[in-house]
Amino acid sequence: MAPKNPLCLPSLLLPLLTLLLPQADSGSFVVDRDHDRFLLDGAPFRYVSGSLHYFRVPRVLWADRLFKMRMSGLNAIQFYVPWNYHEPEPGVYNFNGSRDLFAFLREATLANLLVILRPGPYICAEWDMGGLPAWLLRNPKIHLRTSDPDFLAAVDSWFKVLLPKIYPWLYHNGGNIISIQVENEYGSYRACDMNYMRHLAGLFRALLGDKILLFTTDGPEGLKCGSLQGLYTTVDFGPADNMTKTFALLRKYEPHGPLVNSEYYTGWLDYWGQNHSTRSIPAVTKGLENMLKLGASVNMYMFHGGTNFGYWNGADEKGRFLPITTSYDYDAPISESGDPTPKLFAIRNVISKFQEIPLGPLPPPSPKMMLGPLTLQLDGDLLAFLDLLCPQGPIRSILPMTFEAVKQDHGFMLYRTYLIHTVSKPTQFWVPNNGVHDRAYVMVDGVFQGVLERNMKRNLFLTGKMGAKLDVLLENMGRLSFGSNSSDFKGLLEPPILGQTILTQWLMFPLKIDNLVKRWFPIQLLKSSHPQTPSGPTFYSTVFPIFGSSRDTFLFLPGWTKGQVWINGFNLGRYWTKRGPQQTLYVPRPLLFPRGALNKITLLELENVPSHPQIQFLDRPILNNTLHKTYIYSLSADVQSTSEPMELSGH
Ligand SMILES: CCCC/N=C1\SC[C@@H]2[C@H](O)[C@H](O)[C@@H](O)CN12
């Protein structure tokens, strides 16, 4: 359904002209404070919504997920718009492919789902830097999420592109967007800058007109600083929280109007190295039913979580730096691979007590595929491809520069210097002020010496001859998306120290690994020598056919340590088998070529490769590595059928 702009007016003029031109047959979505409810087209309305992030699901699967959400009984969906996903460089915008936000809005319309939009500018969401673009940090003194003129200039520029595109999609303009959130849990942020919130509210009104319902969302402790006159106040809380107390607190800010929980947690996020998070079905359904009995409108966060593909995961800081896992399954009602779970049917049953749900069955879980074990070939050490990974050559500086300073937003950068004297005894190598952001893989003349990790491992000992190359591969593990009291710069934030010597004279190689891996031919053909004994960050790959149709599957990397995976050039995300809890990576069916065509998988293993460099594709995920057993699925005759798992000793 194409929303209204019949005269194809310049998009910035639209809000102004709607003041003059009454909208024919325009819908309405308003707060009825007299009866503590919403009105949709004049009739009492309560939304039962679920969060689904288009940026965590391949575009070809959007319709499938939205259909399942509708069939679950939802009448609305809620999603964020990550600024950094759409403006990769200042003034460069991308709304194509899996970034086509408007195609997603069309799919939501086709699924008969209304939309609650949350464009930020900050979104949290366990997404890199909470959705703010890393290029903001090229101005090291910028004060994010405040009325800092430099920050507001970038925000204004972005929203003057995005919001006019959103305008035709507003419900009263014939679209499906019924409300729009301003910022995100601002009351939880240290700044509490009301000029900033007022600026945003004014900008949204100027670009979206005065009819659209604008709201804020905060946890109970954040309502004071997160709410603003003129913006409808909503709250977020989960099954374990005290609903009565929280809604009573909300009433202090919204004495009249519908109660709204904008994020009712159906599950929770996972951090590398921590246990997998779950929320029980009885707790989730009990809380939902209690809210619906009160007449509250509810959005369940998440209803379908999806995946942090590529380098897009964010991080938290709870005593130490905690990167979010690649899987954003969230123990949500619809699993990461799009399957309805028992939690979904339980929620659907609760919703059916309060409003009509679509007739007909939920689609069954999608068929899954097993494959392997497959043996990967050694392509070579990462250092062997340096000229291809950094074709423009290194940047030279006396002191190491950050990722942001060299305009490398994500992934990896190699820092190189040369030993100015021989270090014959094992000598301490470290970076002051916890200055490794976030993991460093250290080589001397190409020989792996070990790892430094932010907060976790602050020194190692090495030796080397005068003139030896000292290489430090720096991995950006994702920028803080919540709880950050300072900007999360990445790289070597201080010059490292070897013994008593501050190391200077650095070469920085920003690495364009994705560009190289996208090339189809085996990258080892690009180089002459084939090292027999890999050391440190190393590429492995293989090609494999899928006979018959491709299916969803889960990449399992038993014995591998930590790294990045690409399938047919698509960056599937990070693996960290050694740390868990996630042991498998979801591989969506559309990434795989069927019917005998060759698929290519490439791994960048950052630490240690298993004695047998094999991988498998399983027919089920392993997201909680408290399983103390490693299952190697024996390969049946027709390669892809499921056979009984053979239990091996613990890993
Ligand atoms: C105590 C929680 C404070 C941080 N807020 C969180 S953790 C999970 C969710 C998502 O990040 C969501 O984007 C936030 O708005 C609220 N929330």
From TrEMBL:
Q: Does the keyword 4Fe-4S apply?
A: no
Q: What is this protein called?
A: Beta-galactosidase-1-like protein isoform X1
Q: Which superkingdom heads the taxonomic lineage of this protein's source?
A: Eukaryota
Tell me if Glycoprotein is a UniProt keyword of this record.
Answer: yes
* Active site residues of this protein: 185, 263
Name of a matching Pfam family: Glyco_hydro_35
* One GO term (biological process): carbohydrate metabolic process
Signal peptide coordinates: 1-26
Recorded source organism is: Camelus ferus
Q: Which family does it belong to?
A: Belongs to the glycosyl hydrolase 35 family.
Tell me the ranges covered by the Glycoside hydrolase 35 catalytic domain, including all copies.
38-353
